[in-house]
């Protein structure tokens, strides 16, 4: 009996050690879920784009030469300059420029308007301000920029803060508290070995029902009517306020000048010949920036006064080439006065 017990213990230890070695090997190998992006693609849907899951940012784009996605997951070349010669743009699909060429995005147009400076584009489609804050800290600050331009599209951004569930407000409503588990942590198994085994058996990283939830978790916008509810609007407002406050704190601690731009709602500009009333979310975003001491450019007046070709692509509802150029011109004018 003693011999059997000793043999059983030995095999248990061997099994545990083998499992641990397999897990370490998968980590060293870099095994991690990667998925093809569905829905709106970069450059009008040309080519195949992939993303991977991220426990802090929920997801990030994978390098892709077709769309000039660099090793960190951003649609730009890695910056070579530092300090006052480097400006970083953080945002979502608007600075990323889903429907235009890389050189037509407003960060790239702005760079050509300011010789001697480099503008690094950290825009990622589907990101909310909370993810943009994390991306800036992880991927932007190491380049020691002199300036950060935060691109806000309030029509999506307030809903993203609720939908992402990366943060909640503390009891006093004065600080952000990270949610654990967040939506991605709740989907992922504890070990990579589990995902590897599932991939071998079923040709999927995760069970089908979990993978079907990923698109909903990562890319579906929260319905606008949800923000009409007082409780939801209040929570979204609190989250936006504190994310802006954290952006300002991080910028100040690292001697980075912070400037926000608020891109107006597609519906309020293009709807009914621009006779639509201004979006309340746009107004709220501008007010919160001012209350939190964040310098802000409100693009609504200049967009409404525009008389040229459309600033948005109707089918895509993202900025057209004209829209990107107009944003870059407004930024260049503001920066030249600083």
Folded structure, characterized:
This protein is an alpha/beta fold and 338 residues long. The protein has a domain at 79-187 and 224-337: SGNH hydrolase (Rossmann fold, 3-Layer(aba) Sandwich). It has 13 helices and ten strands. The chain has helices at residues 2-29, 93-96, 106-113, 129-140, 154-164, 183-187, 192-202, 208-219, 230-253, 266-270, 280-291, 300-305, 321-337, and strands spanning 34-36, 50-54, 58-61, 83-90, 118-121, 145-152, 167-169, 176-178, 257-262, 295-298. A hairpin with a 6-residue loop joins strand 7 (167-169) and strand 8. The chain is elongated and about 90 Å long. The model has no long low-confidence stretch (mean pLDDT 90).
Key features of this structure:
338 residues, alpha/beta, Rossmann fold, five-stranded parallel sheet, 13 helices, elongated
CATH superfamily of the domain at 79-187 and 224-337: SGNH hydrolase
- Report the sheet with the most strands, covering strand number, pairing sense and barrel closure: 5 strands, parallel
Radius of gyration: 22 Å
Major sheet: order of its strands?
5-4-6-9-10
Average pLDDT over all residues: 90
Per CATH, the class of the domain at 79-187 and 224-337 reads Alpha Beta
Helix content estimate: 40-55%
Structural class: alpha/beta
CATH topology of the domain at 79-187 and 224-337: Rossmann fold
Number of helices: 13
What is the strand tally?
A: 10
Q: What is the general shape?
A: elongated
Low-confidence stretches: none
- The CATH architecture of the domain at 79-187 and 224-337 would be 3-Layer(aba) Sandwich
Order of helices and strands: HEEEEHHEHEHEEHHHHEHHEHH
Q: In percent terms, what proportion of residues is strand? A: 5-15%
**Amino- and carboxy-terminal Cα gap:** 83 Å
């Amino acid at each position: 009996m003693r011999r059997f017990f000793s043999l059983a213990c030995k095999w248990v230890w061997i099994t545990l050690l083998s499992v641990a070695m397999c897990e370490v090997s998968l980590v060293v190998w870099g095994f991690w879920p990667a998925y093809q992006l569905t829905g709106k693609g970069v450059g009008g849907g040309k080519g195949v784009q992939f993303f991977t899951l991220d426990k802090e940012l929920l997801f990030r784009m994978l390098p892709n030469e077709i769309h000039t996605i660099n090793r960190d997951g951003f649609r730009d070349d890695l910056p070579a300059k530092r300090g006052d010669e480097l400006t970083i743009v953080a945002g979502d699909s608007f600075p990323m420029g889903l429907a235009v060429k890389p050189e037509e995005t407003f960060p790239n147009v702005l760079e050509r308007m300011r010789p001697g400076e480099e503008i690094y584009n950290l825009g990622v489609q589907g990101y909310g301000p909370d993810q943009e804050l994390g991306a800036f800290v992880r991927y932007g600050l190491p380049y020691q920029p002199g300036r950060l331009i935060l691109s806000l599209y309030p029509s999506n951004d307030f809903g993203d803060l609720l939908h992402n569930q990366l943060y909640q407000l503390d009891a006093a409503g004065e600080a952000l508290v990270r949610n654990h588990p967040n939506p991605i942590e709740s989907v992922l198994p504890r070990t990579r070995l589990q995902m590897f085994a599932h991939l071998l058996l079923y040709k999927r990283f995760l069970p089908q029902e979990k993978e079907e939830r990923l698109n909903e978790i990562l890319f579906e916008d929260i319905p606008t009517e949800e923000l009409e509810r007082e409780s939801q609007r209040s929570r979204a407002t609190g989250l936006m306020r504190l994310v802006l406050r954290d952006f300002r704190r991080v910028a100040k601690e690292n001697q980075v000048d912070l400037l926000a731009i608020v891109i107006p709602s597609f519906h309020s500009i293009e709807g009914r010949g621009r006779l639509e009333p201004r979006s309340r979310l746009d107004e709220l975003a501008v007010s919160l920036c001012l209350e939190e001491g964040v310098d802000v450019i409100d693009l609504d007046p200049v967009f409404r006064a525009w008389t040229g070709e459309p600033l948005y692509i109707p089918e895509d509802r993202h900025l057209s080439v004209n829209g990107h150029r107009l944003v870059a011109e407004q930024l260049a004018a503001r920066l030249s006065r600083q």
